[in-house]
Amino acid sequence: MAEETMQFKTELEQLLHLITHSLYSHREVFLRELISNAADAIDKVRFEGLNNEEILEGHSDWKITLKADEEAKTLTISDNGIGMSREQVIENLGTIAHSGTKAFLAKAKEADLENNPELIGQFGVGFYASFMVADDVTVVTKAHGADAVKWESNGTGEFTLSDADKTERGTEITLHLKEDATEYLNEWTIKSTVKKFSDFLEHPVVLLTTKKDEETEVEEEVEEQINSQKAIWLRPKSEITDEEYGEFYKHISHDTNSPAETIHYNAEGAIEFKALLFIPEHKPFDMMMNNDPKSHLNLYVQRVFIGNDFENLLPGYLRFVKGVVDSSDLPLNVSREILQENPMLDKIRKNLTSRVLKTLANLKKTDYKEFEIFHENFSTILKEGLQSDWENKEKIADLLLFESTNKEAGEKTCFADYVENMSDDQEEILYLAGENRASIENSPYLEKFKADGKEVLLMIDPIDDFVIPQLMEYKGKKLKAVNKGDIDGDDLKEEEKEFEGYIGYAKDLLNGVKEVKLTSRLKDSAAVLVGDEMSMSPHIEEMMRRMGQDVPPRESVLELNPEHTVVKKVQALYNANEKDPKVETLTKLLHDQAVIASGAKLDDPAGFAARLNEVLAD
Ligand SMILES: Nc1ncnc2c1ncn2[C@@H]1O[C@H](COP(=O)(O)OP(=O)(O)OP(=O)(O)O)[C@@H](O)[C@H]1O
């Protein structure tokens, strides 16, 4: 096929511009990216070869080869992996921008890219990192059953494709190094960079150098393996340094920080596997950018990489956990679909889940400060487990921290401490969910409990209102939202007789109110709206409306404080003359203020303003 010139996709062009113009420091990451692509390509062909040996073409001496040519100023990275067909080259290296590219571009603009070159890896733009060090890149590649093809570009606007005469499957990437990047021709630099980033890679990384035989003066190529190739998760814990764990974590997570916790163990017994898991301290960028609800641990079977998309390896609510699971009990030569169904995976999941939860519980006990950082970043995700993992509900609940009426803003407590501090006569765990602490800490819903000296948990994470009710109870104590349903001892049946007429009037007058009653739950406030036990809190309804979702009309109970001057006044006015227009104005105002205090929005703010002005002018 004739030579063909094609345009990069717009986003890729922008990306390349950024890479070539902004990235001068930490450029060594290009080698990590290219070597990791080569390793992925080998994993892919090896995996496909399990069921279709033909594809291997008798060529499975897996190897990633680096070769520096001082004269030509080129560094070549080659592999005998899966290779690419012409169509795949066009797609992968030019026209399809990975979903993360846009996000990367947005982030790169605001971030100081020069000091954060890790962004390159975090957004899956790996191959293009080549242009940090090269002004011209050539890719020659051949896939099984396809013709070899050559891709070439100087990273500005377009790339060319032409035929190539490569005969063996695999990919060879030649970087023509920029004048200021020739250090990557240096043997020592190459070796130390590979050691740093790719030492644990399962496949050998070899360096080809030309050495002159001192006696014969004949030049010959020498091949030297430069990575130790020891899968870190297979090595004994005692031999692994924190740096090694840290580098490996960064490699698989694309995080730039060290993990909060490292979990490394061998499971033995009913099922045998090795796991190396990391709990991050902060949310890595990729997690902030996409909302994938699944976990992605890397699954190996007898050291062969199988994939990172096995949903039943770890539940979605632990998706912040990064790591590797390697099992020798799972069958190797079956399709991914069949493997996905294997009941062993469920056993592994149970084991991993309980290990992660135990580690978090231990972190909470031994390093509360570190745990708080973890909680700040990941508790919203963790809470999803209250809904989906009934078996571990209480263990998850034990890991949750909440603000409370007994603590200063920002200070947290947990269910266990709450229950510990409950007085003997208190039967329920009380909580109030809202948008933020400031908007709920003076809420009328809390008045009675404050007066009685009872602690109320203040739940200000938007997910709380959805998931906390699912917990139902903790250590036998029922959970009770103080703005929903009845509360003990708030009935004022006797007094209600006196207010009977007015209560009936108010109920008929007000929209969205299914019942009006008197309450003793209020001390300073005049009125409050109370939802059904199972209803959503008004602030959640508000949030859903803002997201364009349908919210069914709410029917609440309006509770009035018979001790309050305004309530007394309106009742007296009603008794004197039920047609007095002030009765209507004041009743609506009582309702308006209860709506505002509940965190909901007024249906008719202009009407409220008019009513308020009427009263003020009186
Ligand atoms: N050595 C290679 N052999 C075969 N295919 C390759 C090779 N290098 C890159 N590719 C293909 O090109 C695609 C794009 O590579 P690139 O490094 O830009 O992103 P990625 O590897 O998918 O993402 P990430 O870098 O985050 O892992 C790869 O997904 C792969 O399909």
How would you explain this protein's 3D organization?
This protein is of the alpha+beta class. It has four domains: 4-225, Histidine kinase-like ATPase, C-terminal domain (Heat Shock Protein 90, 2-Layer Sandwich), CATH 3.30.565; 232-372, 2-Layer Sandwich (Ribosomal Protein S5, domain 2), CATH 3.30.230; 400-481, Rossmann fold (3-Layer(aba) Sandwich), CATH 3.40.50.11260; 493-617, Four Helix Bundle (Hemerythrin (Met), subunit A). 39% of the residues lie in helices and 20% in strands. It is built from 22 helices and 23 strands. The strands form four sheets. A nine-stranded mixed β-sheet has the order 1-6-5-4-7-3-2-8-9. The protein has a six-stranded mixed β-sheet with strand order 16-15-18-17-20-19. Helix 2 (29-51) packs across helix 6 (187-198), helix 20 runs antiparallel to helix 21 and helix 21 packs across helix 22 (605-617). The longest helix has 24 residues, at 343-366. The radius of gyration is 33 Å and the shape is elongated. It starts with a strand and ends with a helix. The structure holds adenosine-5'-triphosphate. The site of adenosine-5'-triphosphate has 17 residues, from helix 2 and helix 3.
